[in-house]
Specification:
22-stranded mixed beta sheet
């Protein structure tokens, strides 16, 4: 009888443990459900299976499209300011009288998609590509372009500031043009202006024809090549080279480089004063020069013909070349 009672007590004790365990499991399940609800609907951290599948599908197929267009009258606008991130910029001239802006592309997330913000601010037209402030652990790929159609009759100022985006420009006639880039290239066909400024980091500039009275170049880890240029030049570079071709020459050039080469191609009949100074670079010169004072291969000062314009080149670990062409 005593053994039977002991077995009964043990059996009852085991049943209580099982019931207690089940109660704990139910309570934990309820708590997990509540926690999941809070994270999903309040903070949006946990995604359902369907949502994850949809996001993955969007990521692979780039299903969220960006397409925004705005138009503005060119009247009373003195400066067009363009600022972009991860967006290529195309500047296109038109016959009309409206400035048209088209921002388009695709991304795999609507929440992190960039958007166009374009407004007139006094005499300025500000064209900005903005990103929402969203924290996400999922990579969001963006492929976007910004087309800006500018009337041929617009002759004022254009400023472009890009990060991780290239600029393509057709034919423009402006008062002042400024291009500022980080990790972006500029390809320009024909640009006519009173003043141009190029400021770049890890970006290249290639121009077929730059017809300007005053040109300023500042580059870091990027090369600048102008196939046909007019006007004075003020240039500075770090680990970047300059290459300028003049069809006609009668200008002042002042270039300072660190670990960058300078190449000038000038008509054979050009006349100028030359001031070359380098720490460890050499000068290759096709022009007959009359040396002023003492000179060595790293420091040369003199005159070519009777020119009153000056070519001043100062380099550190960079070479300079003066090429002559024509008769």
């Amino acid at each position: 009888m005593k053994e039977f009672n002991e077995k009964k007590i043990v059996k009852g004790f085991n049943e209580k443990k099982i019931i207690k365990g089940l109660v704990i499991i139910v309570i934990c399940s309820i708590l997990l459900g509540v926690l999941g609800y809070v994270l999903e609907y309040k903070f949006g951290i946990i995604k359902s299976g369907d949502e994850i599948a949809q996001e993955n599908n969007n990521s692979s197929n780039d299903k969220f499209n960006i397409n925004t267009t705005k138009e503005f009258s060119k009247e009373n606008i003195k400066t067009i300011n363009v600022e972009t991130v991860s967006t290529d910029v195309n500047i296109i001239t038109t016959k009309g009288d409206k400035i048209k802006i088209n921002f388009y592309g695709n991304t795999n997330s609507k929440k992190t998609a960039p958007y166009l913000k374009a407004n007139i601010n006094g005499e300025n037209l500000d064209v900005l590509i903005k990103y929402p402030v969203v924290i996400s652990i999922v990579s969001r790929n963006v492929k976007a372009k910004l087309d800006i159609y500018i009337p041929e009759s617009y002759k004022n100022n254009l400023k472009i500031d890009t990060t991780s985006g290239d600029a393509i420009i057709g034919n423009l006639k402006l008062d002042k043009f400024k291009f500022d880039t980080t990790s972006g290239d500029a390809n320009i066909n024909v640009l006519t202006a009173n003043e141009t400024i190029f400021d770049g980091t890890s970006g290249e500039v290639n121009v077929k024809s730059l017809l300007s009275k005053k040109n300023e170049f500042d580059t870091t880890s990027g090369d600048i090549k102008i196939e046909n240029i007019t006007g004075d030049i003020l240039g500075g570079s770090v680990s970047g080279s300059f290459k300028f071709n003049y069809k006609d020459f009668g200008n002042n050039i002042n270039i300072d480089t660190t670990s960058g080469d300078v190449e000038l191609k000038l008509p054979k009949k050009s006349e100028f004063k030359l001031d070359f100074d380098s720490t460890s670079g050499d000068l290759k010169n096709d022009f007959p020069i009359t040396i002023t004072g003492e000179a060595d291969k790293h420091e040369i000062e003199g005159t070519v013909g009777n020119g009153n314009k000056t070519i001043k080149i100062d380099t550190t670990s960079g070479n300079a070349t003066l090429n002559a062409f024509g008769e």
